[in-house]
């Protein structure tokens, strides 16, 4: 338990102060979980934790294609083979998806197709931070050994309606449109990026209010 693989403070997007750390292990084996107060993780000169700082640790596995969970499956590198990723409606009426996948060689791209929910006018995709993180820099990392690269959202005509480069520390991409309009999400590794020992990604896809 000496090598830091991943670390997290608040959830992404930050809707509260509960920590959420999705992680994909490179190989089977035993992993250790270290829990500490933010003042310790963030190198605050005044440590604040004591016996009254209680917490509840929940550990689980992602069930493939369970409600709201979408696993990257090849071949899904073009519009014709795009993987369905319709947003799932919760009992509370919210819409979400949790995408997780791996990145192959430099030319690898994962394409997902989705529709704006019938009672919404847009969606936002949030990117989980890569790397191991560094509390001294107040930076989280969910353990991937590579960032994502350029991410596009295109319409059915193939026009890019939203684009950003995740490697430049952008954290989210959004699209607006009429209810039930269909779009395609293109996920890539950085151009020229080399294969790492554990290249993966997690995306959280939410409908806009």
What does this structure look like?
It is globular and about 55 Å long. The model has no long low-confidence stretch (mean pLDDT 88). With 209 residues, the chain is mainly beta. A hairpin with a 5-residue loop joins strand 3 and strand 4. Strands 1, 3, 4, 6, 9 and 11 form a 6-stranded mixed beta sheet that branches. A 5-stranded mixed beta sheet has the order 2-5-10-7-8, with no helix packed on it. 2% of the residues lie in helices and 29% in strands. It contains 1 helix and 11 strands, in the order αβββββββββββ.
Index terms:
five-stranded mixed sheet; globular; six-stranded mixed sheet; mainly beta; 2% helix; 209 residues
Brief sketch in words of this structure:
The chain has one helix at 38-41, and strands at 69-71, 83-84, 88-89, 95-102, 109-115, 122-127, 150-155, 160-165, 172-176, 182-188, 200-207. With 209 residues, it is mainly beta. The strands form 2 sheets. Strands 1, 3, 4, 6, 9 and 11 form a 6-stranded mixed beta sheet that branches. A 5-stranded mixed beta sheet has the order 2-5-10-7-8, with no helix packed on it.
């Amino acid at each position: 338990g000496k090598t830091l693989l991943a670390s997290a403070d608040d959830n992404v997007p930050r809707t509260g102060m509960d920590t959420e750390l999705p992680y994909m292990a490179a190989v089977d084996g035993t992993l250790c979980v270290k829990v500490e107060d933010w003042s310790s993780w963030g190198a605050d000169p005044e440590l604040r934790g004591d016996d009254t700082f209680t917490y509840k640790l929940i550990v689980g596995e992602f069930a493939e294609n369970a409600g709201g969970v979408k696993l990257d499956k090849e071949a899904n590198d073009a519009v014709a083979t795009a993987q369905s990723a319709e947003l799932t409606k919760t009992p509370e009426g919210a819409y979400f998806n949790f995408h997780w996948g791996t990145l192959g060689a430099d030319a690898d791209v994962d394409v997902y197709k989705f529709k704006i929910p019938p009672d919404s006018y847009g969606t936002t995709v949030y990117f989980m931070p890569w790397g191991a993180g560094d509390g001294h820099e107040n930076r989280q990392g969910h353990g991937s050994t590579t960032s994502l690269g350029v991410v596009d959202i295109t319409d059915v005509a193939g026009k890019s309606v939203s684009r950003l480069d995740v490697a430049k520390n952008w954290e989210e991409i959004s699209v607006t449109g009429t209810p039930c309009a269909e779009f395609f999400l293109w996920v890539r590794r950085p151009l020229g990026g080399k294969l790492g020992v554990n290249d993966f990604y997690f995306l959280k896809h939410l409908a806009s209010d």
